[in-house]
């Protein structure tokens, strides 16, 4: 009816439904003209993180050699529950930690969109802790464990909690993760970095293996509680290929050659933690400065192999292209002809 086709004639001439891809999700019933599903449709598999999900197909009427376009919008249903990457979590908290302290919890993921996606978190199991949910820059929810009242290891060495993620479907779906908080014996001094942010500038030709910067954190405690180790808490995959952190000394070394033209800045978040579970973080920003390590490159784009001796002045005999991968003054190129020749260079 929508396409202006008469059903009896339509059946006699033959038809096909064509859909891009290997899976044919739809077929057409010749007796009724109904477009029906031929395979199970999973919106999350077809259109992950896309708000409007549409499948395009074509109806080919072979007798008429006509093609009609059809678009089917796939709407979301609440067929996915929120899920945690790890369902068993462990937190180690000192008994001297002040009430109000916050500790990040693992986030859940929900493949559905809109109201059917993750909407809230709930925490149950112990009155020593409460839950706070922070809004991330992209609108995501970040659950945090908040210490509601002081811990006493002699009273309870462990606290078992249940974190529940809830979506907005009707009925709502949930996912849970169990968290065990281990109370550590008095470690009342956390490591403290000598700087909140370490900033360093290095030339791009610094040798591989060089120490670019050393981060230092001090802990006033003794023994295991004062033994500081370092780790990279947050960094991009490229940064981890370029830089290496010594867990004992805090020295950040270069693993492979730097290239200003490839990347001129690296940032990472470093954590210092002691044997009692307390930690501090610092930002490290490494800026790569350029050196003149690229020579100008000349390429002949086009050239005449011969020219008449009566060719007028100004005749173009060759097209040249010159570039230098360096930037700034290191990338500025000046061209000239060598020798006493009846030619001149002209910048186009």
From TrEMBL:
GO MF term set: calcium ion binding
Protein name per Swiss-Prot or TrEMBL: PCDGC protein
Gene Ontology CC annotations of this record: plasma membrane
Annotated keywords: Calcium, Cell adhesion, Glycoprotein, Membrane, Repeat, Transmembrane, Transmembrane helix
Domain Cadherin: from-to ranges: 15-84, 85-193, 194-298
Stored SUPFAM superfamilies: Cadherin-like
Classification via Pfam families: Cadherin, Cadherin_2
Database matches in SMART domains: CA (SM00112)
Keyword Repeat listed: yes
Subcellular location field: Membrane
InterPro entries per record: Cadherin-like_dom, Cadherin-like_sf, Cadherin_CS, Cadherin_N, Protocadherin/Cadherin-CA
Underlying gene: Pcdhga12
GO biological process: homophilic cell adhesion via plasma membrane adhesion molecules
Membrane topology recorded in Swiss-Prot or TrEMBL: Single-pass membrane protein
Main location: membrane
